[in-house]
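> example.struct
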C-alpha cells in the first residue's frame, strides 16, 4: 500500500505581524496595580491557533489637584478601542464608569463581556516580539493596543499605522541578536 502524505502549504502560518483576532473576554485588572488607573486586558482568539493572545490597555490618568480627570494617553487608547467595538461607555471626570445614557457601570469588564465578545475573528491586531530593555532579558510577544476591522481597508490601515509607529520608535521589535543564544 502507498504512503499517504497530505499536501503542505508553502506559506507558513504566522502568529506575528498583522493577525486576525476575535475577542474571547475582558478583564479589569486596575485594582491589582496601584499605578494603573485603567488596566483593561483583552483575551484574543487568533485565527488558526489553539492559543490566545492578550492585549492590554493600561496606564495612569492625568488628574488635577482635586483628583478630577484632565486627560492622559491611556484615555486615547481606551476610547480608540471602545470606538472600534462600538462601545459608548466611558469615564466621568470623577473616574466612574458610565454608559452613554448616564447609567453607572459597576464592573467595566462585566459590561464589556456582556456585549462585545466575538464568535469569529472580526478584527486585526499587530503582534510582535518586543525588544527587551536589557540584553539578555527574556523576549516576549506583545500585541499593540489597537484593533482594526478585519477588512481590506482595516488591514491597510493597520499596516500604515504600524509602519508609522515603527518609524517613530514606538514599536521596537526584537531581532536575532536579542534572542537567547544556545
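> example.seq
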Amino acid at each position: 500500500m502507498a504512503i499517504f502524505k497530505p499536501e503542505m502549504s508553502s506559506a507558513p502560518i504566522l502568529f506575528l505581524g498583522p493577525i486576525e483576532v476575535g475577542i474571547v473576554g475582558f478583564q479589569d485588572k486596575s485594582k491589582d496595580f496601584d499605578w494603573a488607573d485603567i488596566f483593561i486586558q483583552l483575551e484574543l482568539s487568533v485565527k488558526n491557533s489553539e492559543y490566545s493572545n492578550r492585549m492590554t490597555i493600561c496606564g495612569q490618568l492625568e488628574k488635577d489637584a482635586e483628583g478630577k480627570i484632565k486627560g492622559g494617553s491611556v484615555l486615547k487608547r481606551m476610547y480608540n478601542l471602545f470606538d472600534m467595538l462600538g462601545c459608548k461607555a466611558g469615564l466621568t471626570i470623577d473616574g466612574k464608569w458610565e454608559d452613554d445614557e448616564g447609567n453607572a457601570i459597576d464592573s467595566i469588564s462585566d459590561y464589556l463581556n456582556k456585549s462585545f465578545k466575538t464568535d469569529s475573528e472580526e478584527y486585526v491586531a499587530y503582534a510582535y516580539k518586543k525588544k527587551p530593555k536589557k540584553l539578555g532579558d527574556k523576549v516576549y510577544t506583545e500585541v499593540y493596543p489597537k484593533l482594526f476591522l478585519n477588512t481590506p481597508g482595516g488591514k491597510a490601515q493597520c499596516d500604515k499605522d504600524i509602519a508609522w509607529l515603527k518609524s517613530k520608535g514606538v514599536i521596537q521589535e526584537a531581532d536575532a541578536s536579542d534572542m537567547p543564544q544556545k
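> remarks
The first helix runs from residue 73 to 85.
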